[in-house]
Amino acid sequence: MKRKNRKLIVLISGLIVANIVLIAVICALFYSKQQKAQSLIAKAQSAYKQADYQGALDCLDKLSDAEKKKPENLLLLAKIEAITKNEHLADTLAEFHNLNLTTKQKALYANELAQINLTVALNKDDYTQADSIFAEQAVVPLDPQLALKLIKHDTENNNNPAALKMFKLLENMFEFDENLNKYYLLTAAKAGEAQLATELFHKNKDLYLKDNQYMLNLEESLLSQKATTLLGEIYQSYLDKKTLNKSNFLRLQKFFKSQNDTTSLEKLKELAKELNIVTSDNDSVGNTQGNILNSGIIAKYKNTLYFPDFSNFYLTKTDDDFANKTVLLQTAVNYLNVTADNIYFVNRLPKANASGKQDKWQEVGPIKRVDLEGQNLQMIYDTEASHLLLEKGYLYFIDHKDGKKLKRIAVSSIDMGEVEVETVVNDAVTEYALNHDKVVYAHDKDHKLHLYDISQKQDKILVNNRVSYVNMAQDRIYYINMDKSSHIECYSLADNKTKTVFNKSQCSQLNVIPGSSQSKDMLLFEKLNLARMRGDGNDYLDLTSDLITHINFVDKYIYYYLEDPNSAWEMYRQEINGGKRMKVVGNK
């Protein structure tokens, strides 16, 4: 009995040992399989991070079906398929969504799913979907280049807060290069994040300041957001580092004026002198010489027309063909000259009638300027000036307070705060015209036509008759000969000869539009009515039957007043080729 029990015990023990060995073998095999799966997953993740997407796919493909269906592995596969635009992505995502995930698991994988969906939307250029996903989840797409693509789209569509939000996420993941740092700062400025913009600017201050075009864009963005604190810091940096040029000088000057910062303005002027910065545009022209001869009642810059308003002569503009008019300055003006930055004009002085009551305006007055929005009014020269003309960086004018001498002011000296007035012609002048260093003028006493060479300082008489309305077109001088029944003549500097252009009636208010030759010049004049013709006498046309005054020309239109006390100073417009006139300024 004992022997039987002993055998049973041995048998049972053997079975237990065999089971233990079997279990150990099974566990070893399972562990080996798990280790292999973990190794493949690790290799797949490593390959994915290194952008070796095919290598990652190969590793995932070697997993068992059970491992492949795990949510984290399905998501890794979906990420790779999203980046590589694989056609099986939809199936992989469908398989993932079919898993019975817990609420906790769904929350765990939500961001990764959002990244995949955002990547797909951006690959399809579906920015509406992309913006919706990003607004809800605030995730970065799988490919950083797609993140930049979304940033660019948002900034181009003025959705700068969203673009800035993406930048902040990217900043925590990558180190930005110079271009991205610039883009980041500019986006912060456009988004109105003044504090962040200030911090970013201080991090790479020297990088930004050395790029003039970039700084111009940044400054414009800061101005639009009224971020004056950072803008002030930037402009002080220009002063401290002496990185001043013509372009930023004008920007700094305008900003410091708007802030009433007289200390910085003085510092700016001193630095401009030290660096010998000339701010005027040497090629700038404010109006045509023919218009100035006729009081300069119209001037244009880009699509905006500037003119004196009806009855009070206030400075006014229109951007929509006179449908709407905006008074810029409640100041009586004429002799208008307009540039990209400023309007130069003569501030007309009041004239009292016999009873002492003001009912008219004089043609003369001090020279002033104002910016294109009617701000920053500045007295340039307090005198009694007329015939103000901005030509090639100089303001020319007749100074009635100083014997009607022809004078000029360098615009650069105005910008520097020290107006330099230079006498060009010492004789009394009634009117003048310019071409380079040549000035032709009518003398105030005998009204003879003179030619003055500014560089050579030489003066000579060209025509001994009395002349008026002197116009210059290259080497051709047009004028009205008052001693010859007020006919129109042309003096050629090329051959020193005079030729009659029009002698059929008395003429006045000549306004010449220069062409490439005499046959291309266009003459506008009054002979009891408005007429036009070519410089060689051809292409004659009567335009009106009324008495008119102040003939001005812009583009294809002639602007003028009717010489009628009942409708004085109402401005009319008419095409140079004829047609019905239209009242553009005055009582309707």
TrEMBL record:
Residues 287-512 form the Prolow-density lipoprotein receptor-related protein 1-like beta-propeller domain. Keywords: Membrane, Transmembrane, Transmembrane helix. It comes from the Bacteria. The chain crosses the membrane at residues 9-31. This is DUF5050 domain-containing protein.
